[in-house]
Structure formats: C-alpha cells, structure tokens
Amino acid sequence: MVTTKTDKKARPKPFLFPQYCKACGRCIEACPKDCIHVGSKIDPSSGLTPVEVDLERCNGCGLCIDACPEPYGLMPAPGDIEDMSLMDPAQIFGPRQTTAPTPEPIPDVMVPLPELEPMVLKGTHAAAVGAILAGCRHIFGYPITPSTEGAELMAKLLPQLDGVFVQAVSEVATVNIMYGCGGAGLRCATFTSSPGFSLMLEGISYMIGAELPGVFFNIMRGGPGLGNIGPEQSDIKLVCRGLGHGNTHAIVLAPSTPQEMLDLTMSAFDLSFQYRNPVVIAADGYLGQMTGRVELPKTLTKPGVPEWAVHGDREHRGNLITSIYIIEADLEIHNEKILAKYDRMIDNEQRADCFKCDDAEWVVVACNTPARMAKGAVQELRDQGIKAGLFRPITLWPFPIRLLTPALARAKGMVVVEAGPGQLEDEVRLALSHADIRDAPPISHVRRYGGVLPQQQEIVDKVRALVEE
Amino acid sequence: MEGVFYNRFERHAHGEGLKGQSTHYCSGCGHGLVHKYLAEAVDELGVQDRTIAISPVGCSVFMYYYLDVGNSQAAHGRAPAVALGHKMANPQSIVISYQGDGDLASIGLAEIIQAAQMGVPMTIIFVNNAIYGMTGGQMAPTTLMEQQTTTTPTGRDRLTGEPMRMAETIGQLNGPVYVERVALYDNKQRVRTQKAIKKALRMQVENRGLGFVEVLSECPTHLHMSPSDAEQWVKDEMVPIFPLGVKKDVETEPWFQLDPPNFEPADVATVIGSSTESNGRGTEPFPAHIDPEDVSIKFAGAGGDGAQTIAMLTTRTAINAGYDSTHIPSYGPESRGGTSYADVHIATTEVLSPASPKPHVLVVFNPQSLEKFGPTVRDGGVILYDSTVIVEPPEMDPGIRAYGIPFTQIAVDLGKAMVKNTVALGATVAATQIFPVERFVETMEDALKDRCALLPINREAFNRGVEAFSDLEQTQ
Fold first, then answer.
1. Which residue from A90, A99, A258, B74 puts its CA 20 to 30 A from A217's CA?
2. pTM beyond cutoff 0.90
3. Which of residues 90-119 of A touch B (CB under 8 A)?
C-alpha cells in the first residue's frame, strides 16, 4: 500500500515519481547524507528538471520526505512493491478521489404543535418567532435600528432552546458566518437594516454562487447614506437587482402585517433550502415596529441536514462549498445552472394579494406598510363609488406579473404607491416590459421618502384626481 | 492511497494529466509543506471525518483540491467568520481556517480579531510570505520595510506603514490558548512547524481553545529568487522582524460544549411565550360609540413618558377582546428625551391603515404634542392631557371633549413619577369607555407577570386615573 505518511520508526527510504517533482531543492538541503542532487534530465511530462535520488547511503531518516512540499512528491517507498515507477499512477492512486461515502439527505420533520392562542407581537418579533418555528436555531447579526429587536429577542430565546446567537464584529462578518452555518446545512438568519444590508451584499453574492441557504430580514430605513431610521422602501432596487456582483437573484418576500412577518418567514426558510439560495424578507421600519395579532401555525419544523452540506462528519466529508470556478467553461455551466434555478423561481414562486381587483378601474400597486394605507384608500374609494383595487406583490422578485395581468383587465390606470422615489415602480415597469405587455394602462404614483410614509388621504386624492381628469 | 490527501486531485483542472497528483503551487512555495503538515496532524489526531478546511482567497484558494476533508471556500479575509459559522452549526466539527497575509492581516483583520478574541476552539493557520502571491506580487501588510513589490516599486516606506506582526497581536488577546510563529527554511524549523500545527489542532480537538500558527513561508516567484535563496531570505530578513517562537501558551481545561438544539414543541411554545389558554377573547362588545368599525388613538409625549407602553397595553387589550388591533411607535433616535408617539387602531375585522393621522382619541403628555396633534383630532373626539405640565391649554374645537388631568402629579403623589402613563391610561379608559376597566387590568397583570413588584403601584395608578376622570367629570 502506498502512503504519503512518514512512519518514523519504519524508516522507509524515499521514492519519487519524477513527473511530480518541481525541483525546488528543499530535499537536497534536507538530506544529511547528500543522497539527493540537482537533476540534469528534463522530465518530458512536466517540462521541469526533477532532482535525482541515489539511495546507496540513505539511512531512511525521512527528512527529505518531510521537506517535500508536494503531496505525491517524495514519498515513503512501499516495502512490497519492487519498482513503483513501472506502475500506472492511476492504478496506484485508485479510481475514486475519496473513500468518503455518498451522502443521503436527512429530511426535515414537521412536528405538531399544541393548539396555541394567537399572540400579540411586533413585526420583528413575529419574524423571530417564525424563524424559531421554522427550525432556525442560529442567528448572527450586528445591531442596527430599526431591526435590532428581532436580534435581541433571539439573543434571549435561542439559548433557552440550545440555539446560538452570535453578535458579529460587522455585517460583513455576519453574512460570512451565515455562509459557514448555511454551508453546514443548517437554518440561519440575520436581522439587519438598509446600511447593514449594503455591507452584506458581497457575502450574499458568495452565498448565491456557492448555492447556500440563509434568510435575511432587511427592515428597510431611510437613505441614502446614514439617512434616518424612519421607514422607507429604500432597498427594492438592491434586493431585486443588486444582490452583489455577478448574476445574482434571490426570492424577495414583502410582508405587510405582523402575521405575514411570521408566515413569510416560515416560507422563506423552506424556499431557501428548496432552491439552495438566500431569501430576503424586505420589510419597512414601520412594519418592523408594528404590533399586531399573530396566529401561530399548527406545526413546527425540525430541520434535517441536506446531502450537499459540509457538516463536519463522515457522511458529508466528500462535499465542497465554493463559488470559484476557475475554468471559464465550468463557470459558464455553473451560471447556466443558477439561471435555470432563477427560471424555476419565476415559474413557481410569484405571489401577490389582490383586494377588490376583479372589476377595478383604478389599480393601486403597493407592498409592505404602504399597502395597508393603500388598502384603506381602496376601501374609502369604494365607499365613494370609485372602482379601485389593490394589487399587493408579496414576492418583489420574482415580480408577480402573472397575477398582475388579470388584475389590469378593466383598469383605466395604475397608481404605484411607495415609500421611496420609484424603486417599486421600476419593478412594475420592468415586469410589464419583460412580459411584453404593450397595452398596460398609464402608470402614475404616490411617492414619499426620507422616512415618510404615503398616507391614505394622499392615495385617495390621487385616484380621485385621475378619475376626474 | 491512504492519508488526508485525495487519491486524485479531481478538482484540479478535472484531475487531467499531472494535475491529478500535483499541486498548483510554484516551485519552492511553502504552502504545499503547510498543507502536508496539516494533513499529517489531521490524520494523527484521527479527525479526518470531522474536519472542515476553510480555503481562503489567495494562492491557497484551492486548498480544497487536495485535502480529503469537508471543504468550504471563503471570501477574501472572511475565513475565520466562515469557520465560526461551521463551528457554531456543528460543535463536533474540527474547523481549520487557513489564510495568507493579505487575507488575514489586511482585508480580514476584523474577522480574525473577533474570532481570536472569542476563543472558540478553532485552528488558524496563517501563512506569511510578505507578499501578495495570487494577484501578482503586490505589497502585503507583512511586506518588509524597503522591500520592493509591484505596489511599492521603490520599496516599502514610512508612508505605507511598517509590517504587521500578527502572532504578537493575536498573542496579546485573551481568547487564544496557543499562538506560535514558525518557519520552513530548514529541517529544524520544519519539525517545529509540524509540532505547532499539530498542537494548535489538538487544542481544538480537546475543546480547549483557539490555536494560531503563523508560518513564515517562501514565495520565490514574487521575491524573484531561487527557492533556496528565498529560504535564506526568510531566515535573514524576515525572522529579525518576525521573531520565531511561542507567543502564548496557556493551560486551559476543556470548556467548549454546545448541546444539540431543542425542537420539542412544548418547550418551543413556552420559550416563544405562547399559551394554550384563552385570554377570554371575543367577549366584549366593539366600542361602536366611538366608531362603527375602526377606532383610531394617538398617544404622544416625550421619549420616556411611557406612551408606547400604554399604547401596547391598549392593543393587547383590544386583541384579547376579540378584535384586530395594531400599534406602531414613532420616536426619535434617543430613547429618552425625544418626541415619542404611538398610533393605535382597533378594528372590527381588519385594521387597514395603521397610522392615526386623524385620531378619535388623543392622549398627550406635553404642550408640544398637544399643539401638534390637538388640531388633528376628529370632530366629536376626545383629548386627555397632562394638566401638571399643560397649565394653559390652547383653545380647542368645541366639538371635542378635552380633559386636563394631572397625570404627573398623581403619579408623584403615589411616589413614582414613572407611572404617570398608567394614570393616563386609567383616565383614558374611563373617558372613552373603550373596553371595561377590568379588561385593561387583566392585560396589565399579564404584561407584568415577570415583574410582579411593579404590579401594585401600576394597579393603583390605573385606578387613580379612573377616579381622577370621574371626579373631573362630576365637577364639569
């Protein structure tokens, strides 16, 4: 049997496959008996000039083997093979790269919960409870208003369930700790807000490249720069179009109530593992702080370990988590795989909520907290006899264009309502364009920003003005 | 083959030709030796199956081509963070963060310092060759003074700073248990390196703590030297700046242990604070005398007045009474002293817009808030204000019922100024008849169940608020 290990007591003499020698000469200096010399013959396969070994005076001290930087350079000569150099390396080194087993997935288990009364929770806390029920026991993060209460609650609760909360040195570290934990096949998440999310983008790109799950709560606040801690839908552009470098996308869920903060969080973990891709929950600062009634699910998830994980056990020893594909053709294939995954998300994951859209002449489009103001406005307009409806995207990416199209059947106009200067409207327009919808009704908008939310009255006034035009 | 190297390096250009058995490293590079000593240590300690090697960015980015262990490849500088994620996910795993000088001592400084100071058992291998290899010979944080690189073409000078001594830096932190700097340039140094790597790994295997080994290594390619001259250069030039030896070695008992996460439904239900017991929902009539389907309330004051707390109690009471309700706070960045107001909605079926730009009920603690929000209250609405601090209230619309009650004075008389918000809540409940008094008391008892000492004074404050309103109404 050939081995790369030096058994000091056995004192085997060295053996060299000349083609693996890079002629660095460390072995020459290492040998106390002067057995190894600078070579004179160019090896035809490597084009290098390997050292020459003369074993006549060799006492098997092994120092040359320990000095050789190549794993299959100078090796202890096997006692039972007369002349290894005559053997085919493929035969010596074996057919498989590793003896590690081929891993099987350990599936998630849905465990019934007792019948629980509804809770009264603020948005960030509802998300935290949702994460716990989804089987997440690992939260990493860096404090940033207005997301911190979620992390604080997790720091308090997770140790009681033998989970782990680590306050990282920065958001940059946070996302990379998630890379490790997600890479190990476990459910993990972070709570952050816009400036912190910006810092995580590099790592999110790596997670997408390495196909790792992880859930990001981005409780969006006013920007740009330090901005303020008021609610703004300031990162729709980032979460839909700008998740770091490369061809990146992730499913983006936009809750609008504390109940949805819990429900969509539970979906987020499942989607994240189903697609091996990060999932972003994009909420606004208002929703993060908003307290409301939250119904609890009937089951919780006891997560398994996926077959691809690098979990640190024998089963998963053969696995690799990486985003580097140094050969261009390999990276092209990898991108094709990721792009096909995005296509599956687009085909299967579009979600939206339609309120009174069936006969709507005026379709208001809004998500997160502004969707609640918009819903109030639609109700008020209906009370006034105006046929208004609310189209509320729940997935911002993929944009639920397939659900928007029927809602526009009778529409005379669309009004995009957002706490931001047009990032949501850009998504609407891009989705219409990609779907090749050329007869969409005119789009107008109600926009507030800087931490200010559009109010119900502004929306009512806007639609009334359009009706009266 | 046996050992911790793959039989064939299939990830190295698909293992074709010589690449199936040889590394991508240049002739004379130190990385191969460090890989070899690491593989030996993993093997000798019997932890191959549990080991996860974190490949960094730099020349050793492809360490995962070679080591037959779990492999995870990290972004530039982030290997210790990735390692920490793996270790937290599976505390049984043996995690090795392998980094070069640019990775560890420049872009990844924050991550290595945090990991080291946490001291969670992990093994850090730091290969210092005083130059950036992969990007082609630029200045590293450990580049020597006057050393020429492609970004210090005339030699490193004062303006670019002096070389970072990482072993010393890490060694003075509390977290690590073992820190040593070693080298590769002769047999003696190589034996020390083998021992140091094995010891650093053993510290982790025995759950004692974090081990850090800095290896002075050769990069003949970018030093533009022969391999043997590079060895001499490390010995003559680097060692005086980066002295070899043990920087820290402390006796520690095994301490690191994390229990497997708990998914027991009953435990989870308890921890999240949910209950199987009903809070008597759906037993109170909706306060339709205020609005048929959606009651809007605003509580406003300075930060620290307690507006948020009583807004929350109101929302909880409404939900317990069987209705949809929301509470949203808005306050300045300071938790005290800024403007703080809370909007509450209570709806028969669903709260639509959660903001209260036109409230039915306004409760205010200071003159500014009354001035700001008083005019927004709907016709027929109610305003309660703290008459201790608002002695001359502005003139108000005759359609509004306004009550000045000395919230603060009552609270001070009770011996605790802080409970002025509870006084205000009592007065509000009495003035609006929104839900029965006892429902609010129940919510308060539930909210304070973990802080029982606060309950009597709050109950008293609430009752005094209720009484103060009754007294006022009788006199008016």
1. B74
2. yes
3. 92-94, 96-100, 111-119
